Amino acid sequence: QVRVVESGGGSVQAGGSLRLSCAASGYSYCTYYMSWYRQAPGKEREFVSSIDRAGTTKYADSVKDRFTISQDNAKNAVLLQMNSLKPEDTAMYYCKADQYPCSAGPAYRSAYWGQGTQVTVSS
């Protein structure tokens, strides 16, 4: 019903930048909000950032002032600009799209996850 696809991961040296993109597609589905999570080897998945349909953003303390989430409404996508990357940012990054049937309203939202994109930061 809803397909979530991430892109933009890769390898970079500490201090560098990457931009991740997440596109959610689903016929007659509307976006409630979209989030980024990450999971490093041996660790639990953790929240990184989110943006709701009003454009309100949230960030984990560990990425605040370094990462910026934004909407690309033309592509129904969300971008995560990651600057000043650190080795501890190395993880698989996952996009979560909370979507609902437009005809039913946000009370009927469900979460859809992408397959993830790898970010590796070397020191």
Number of strands: 11
Global structural class: mainly beta
Strand content: over 45%
What series of H and E elements makes up the topology?
EEEEEEEEEEE
Rg, rounded, reads 14 Å
Helix fraction bin: under 10%
Q: Whole-number average pLDDT?
A: 94
Largest sheet: 7 strands, mixed
What oligomeric arrangement do these chains adopt?
single chain
Number of alpha- plus pi-helical segments: 0
Unreliable runs, pLDDT <50, ≥5 residues?
none
| Cα end-to-end separation | 41 Å
Principal-axes geometry comes out as elongated
Could you describe the 3D structure shown?
The protein is mostly beta strands and 123 residues long. The chain is 0% helix and 58% strand. It has no helices and 11 strands. It has strands spanning 3-7, 10-13, 18-25, 29-39, 46-52, 57-59, 67-72, 77-82, 91-101, 110-113, 117-122. Strands 2, 4, 5, 6, 9, 10 and 11 form a 7-stranded mixed sheet that branches. Strands 1-3-8-7 form a 4-stranded antiparallel sheet, with no helix packed on it. Strand 5 and strand 6 (57-59) form a beta hairpin. The radius of gyration is 14 Å and the shape is elongated. The protein starts with a strand and ends with a strand. The relative contact order is 0.33. The model has no long low-confidence stretch (mean pLDDT 94).
